[in-house]
Amino acid sequence: MKKQPSAIHAAITGVHGYVPDYILSNDNLATMVATNDEWITTRTGIKTRHILQAPDKGTSDLAIPAVLGLLEKTKTDAKEIDLIICATITPDMPTPAAANLIAHGVGAINAFSYDLQAACSGFLYALVTAAQFIESGNYNKVIVVGADKMSSIVDYEDRATCILFGDGAGAVLLEPSKDSAIGIRSSILRGDGLGAQHLHIKAGGSRKPASATTLSTKEHYIYQEGNIVYKYAVEKMSEVVLELMQQSDLQPKDIKFLVPHQANKRILESVAQRTGFSEAQVMLTIQEFGNTTDATIPLCLWRYEPQLQKGDKIIITTFGGGFTWGATYLTWAYGA
Ligand code: UT7
After folding, report:
1. Pairing label, strands 183-191, 83-87
2. Overall average pLDDT of the 282-301 stretch
3. How far is CA 121 from the centre of its chain?
4. How far, in Å, from the CA of 182 to the mean position of ligand 1?
5. Residue 29 Cα to ligand 1 middle (Å)
6. Is 71 in a helix, a strand, or coil?
7. How far is 66 from 107, CA to CA, in rounded Å?
8. Collapsed DSSP state (helix, strand, coil) of residue 12
9. Looking at the predicted structure, is the pLDDT value of residue 205 above 60?
10. 43 CB under 6 A from ligand 1?
11. Residue 104: CB within 6 Å of ligand 1?
C-alpha cells in the first residue's frame, strides 16, 4: 500500500508491555518433553518464556496491565481514548472481543473497541489500521494492543511447538502529528490463505466445533509444519523489507532498528543478512519472551524504548499464520 499524502500523520507516542511472573525455562521443558537447553538455544535462540498460570485468566488479563501502564506513562485519561484495537489469536472467549473486555477493564468508557486476527502479523495489521483512523482526522487517541495467552493453545506434550511460545502483551498509543517527518510513513501488508495448511488450529472454529473427539485428538492445539513455515518466513519478510526500503528510498544505514517478529533467532539472522542489516540493528527479545505471537513487536519496542530517540527510523516486519506478512517504516516520535 503506497501511503497517500495526508496532512495528519499517526505517531506512536508511548509503549508499554506486560508479561506474567512465572518463567518457564528450557530446563523446565526438558522435564516435560524430550528436549534440552542446547537444542532449544541453538535451534531457536529461546532461553525462557513467561506463562500465565492462573487457569481462570485470559488474554485480557495480560493486556489490561499493559494498557494501564501505557496510560499512566503517557499521562492519558482512559476517558480520552477513542478506539482500542486488540490483535490476538487467543481472545478470552469467541465473543465478546478481548478488546471489549480490555476497554472495560481500563475504564475507556468513550472508546469503541474490536479484535483483529492476523496471527503473528496481527499487531502490524492493527497498527496500520489504527493509523488510518488517526489520519482521517476524526480520532485523536487510539491504542493498539497485541496480546496472546499462547499457553492456552499449546500442547505441552509436543516438543516441536511447546518450546516456542510464551504469553505476554504490549500496547502502543497512536496520536496525530502535524510533522510529516514523524510517525508511520509507509507500509506493505500481504497475505495468502494457501499457507493455512502449514499453520493452523484444526478444531474449535465453525468448520469443526470443539467436541469430546477433537479434545481427545488434541485438535484444539496449534499445528505447525515448522520447516515450511521457517522458509516462507525468511523469504517473505526479507522480500517485503527490501521492497519497502526501495519504495521509500532507504538503505539499511538510514535505519536505526529492524524490528522483526520474534519467531526464531535463526530466522531473524537470515532476514537481517538478506536485507543488509547488522546484528546490532536487529531488536531481539526472543531469548527472554519466546514467541508471544501478537505481542512480539510491542514487547520489542518496550524493551528497546530507552535506546530510541525522536527522529529514529525503524522498520517493523512480521510473518505468521495465514500466511500473513508485512512491513512498516516509521519515524519515532519521542525520546532524548
Ligand atoms: O510465529 C509464526 C511463525 N512461526 C515460525 O516462524 C516458526 C518457524 N519454524 C521454526 O522456528 C523451526 O522450524 C522449529 C524451531 C519449529 C524447528 O526447528 P528445525 O531446525 O526446523 O527442526 P526440525 O523440525 O527440522 O527438526 C529437526 C529434528 C527432528 O528430529 P529428526 O527427525 O531429525 O530425528 C525433530 O524431531 O529435531 C527434532 N526436534 C527436537 N529435538 C529436541 C524437534 N523439536 C525438538 C525439540 N528438542 N524441542
Report:
1. unpaired
2. 98
3. 6
4. 40
5. 15
6. helix
7. 14
8. strand
9. yes
10. yes
11. no
Nearest-10 Cα torsion for 197, 198, 204, 206: -20
Domain 183-331 fold is Peroxisomal Thiolase; Chain A, domain 1 (3.40.47)
* Residue 19 Cβ < 6 Å to ligand 1: no
Residue from 88, 163, 264, 270 whose mutation best tests the ligand 1 pocket (most atoms within 8 A of CB): 264
CB of 260 closer than 6 angstroms to any ligand 1 atom: no
Q: Return residue ranges of the chain for CATH 3.40.47.10.
A: 9-177, 183-331
DSSP per position, 143-193: EEEEEEEGGGS--TT-HHHHTTB-EEEEEEEEEEES-TTSEEEEEEEEE-G
- pLDDT tens-digit series, residues 93-141: 999 999 999 999 999 999 999 999 999 999 999 999 999 999 999 999 9
Task: Quote the ligand 1 centre to 78 CA distance (angstroms).
Answer: 43
From the options 3.30.2270.10, 3.30.300.30, 3.40.47.10, 2.60.110.10, give the CATH code of 9-177. Answer: 3.40.47.10
Does residue 232 surpass a pLDDT of 90? Answer: yes
Which of 79, 82, 84 has the alpha carbon at shortest distance from 96? 84
Q: Mind spelling out the 3-state secondary structure of 297-317?
A: HHHHHHHHHHHCCCCCEEEEE
State the CB neighbour count (10 A cutoff) for residue 43. Answer: 15
Q: Which residues of 215-233 are buried (b: 16+ CB within 10 A; e: fewer)?
A: eeeebbbbbbebeebbebb
CA atoms within 13 A on the CB side of 174: 29
Ligand 1 centroid–CA 222 distance in Å is 14
The alpha helices in the chain, defined as continuous H runs, are 26-30, 37-44, 59-73, 98-106, 122-135, 159-162, 212-216, 226-247, 265-275, 286-289, 296-304
Residue type for position 272: A
Q: Which residue has the cell 519472551?
A: 289
325: left (phi over 0), alpha (psi -120 to 50) or beta: beta
Q: What are phi and psi of 104, to 5 degrees?
A: -65, -45
Contact present, 124 and 297 (Cβ < 8 Å): yes
Catalytically annotated residues = 120, 261, 291
Q: Are 206 and 163 in contact (CB under 8 A)?
A: no
